[in-house]
Design a protein that fits this description.
Blueprint: H1 4-7, E1 16-27, E2 30-42, E3 46-50, H2 57-64, E4 72-75, E5 78-81, E6 84-85, H3 91-97, E7 102-105, H4 109-112, H5 119-128, H6 135-148, H7 154-158, H8 167-179, E8 185-189, H9 197-214, E9 217-222, H10 225-231, E10 234-239, E11 242-248, H11 258-265
Parallel strand pairs: 3-9, 3-10, 7-8, 8-9
Antiparallel strand pairs: 1-2, 1-4, 1-5, 5-6, 10-11
Length: 289
């Protein structure tokens, strides 16, 4: 792992400091270790967490906000956000943190938005949960936020229901809902996986500009190593619940761990087509060292 100063990418004191995070799920006598000894810091930057499905990426993000069920065991040597000890924070304190200071953009809006409430009122509800303002003031704030995330005709879209908006609009609405409270950290869990290429690029450009303008810390969870190479500042590569490599995104071509090399080698290359892509061979030693 690189030093804290290098990891923060010259961004000053860390917003988030996580050391030896472990998450296990208990089902009767069976215990599944989903996250095993993950450590990282986050400054005002774009930090990617990449890996295959089941590697523990989303589990880390949810653990930070304590969104796991009661059957989950979460331990860490340190899990601190600014002045808050997240590991030992009470539920009333976490309700003040979630949404207000740390937000999570879920993967697919059709599973996260309430189908029987218009999208504008859902965004307003997120704002009203943390601000004592009138409904009219909240509506004005929502319209302003819809404009920020580049929704055309925000007043018309405000009154639409989730099934009446496109996938790209739905993702922008989710981003508006998570950013309207002006959080310090945003966790984006596969925010572009359900979008076509052109809309994906628009959403990424919008997230990039918002991070720059607001000075956010962004945790970008993805399985697309090619995407994070061009979008993020740093990359944590996860395998079987562990971080096997931490590297600057610009240096991914120089990655040393065989798992990271395997992910990179499996990427198709239009400029240099190959008859078949290599199949990764996994080493049992990766589970422990």
């Amino acid at each position: 792992m690189t030093s804290s100063i290098q990891e923060l990418n010259n961004s000053g004191a860390p917003l988030l400091d996580v050391s030896n995070l472990r998450v296990s799920f208990v089902n009767g006598k069976a215990v599944t270790d989903a996250v095993r000894g993950v450590s990282f810091t986050l400054g005002r930057e774009k930090l990617a967490i990449v890996g295959e499905s089941g590697s523990g990426k989303s589990t880390v993000g949810r653990a930070l906000l304590k969104l796991h069920p009661g059957s989950a065991r979460i331990t860490a040597d340190c899990m601190r956000f600014a002045e808050i000890d997240l590991l030992n924070a009470s539920e009333p304190l976490m309700r003040k943190v979630r949404g207000k200071r740390m937000s999570m953009i879920m993967q697919d809006p059709k599973y996260s938005l309430n189908p029987v409430v218009c999208v504008g009122d859902q965004i307003a509800e997120a704002y009203l949960a943390h601000h004592r303002v009138s409904r009219r003031e909240a509506r004005e704030k929502v319209l302003e936020m819809l404009d920020v995330v580049r929704i055309r005709q925000p007043e018309r879209v405000y009154a639409l229901y989730p099934h009446e908006v496109s996938g790209g609009q739905g993702q922008r609405i989710m981003i508006a809902m998570m950013l309207i409270t002006d959080p310090e950290i945003v966790i984006a869990d596969e925010p572009t996986s359900a979008l076509d290429v052109s809309v994906r690029l628009q959403v990424l450009a919008m997230l990039d500009s918002l991070v720059e303008e607001r000075g956010l810390g962004l945790i970008f969870i993805s399985h697309d190593i090619n995407l994070v190479r061009s979008f993020c500042d740093r990359v944590l590569v996860m395998y079987a619940g562990r971080v096997v490599e931490s590297i600057a995104a610009r240096d991914l071509d120089n990655a040393q761990h065989p798992y990271t090399r395997g992910l990179l080698d499996a990427l198709p290359d239009i400029a240099c087509p190959r008859p078949s892509l290599p199949v990764m061979t996994r080493d049992p030693a990766w589970l422990d060292g």
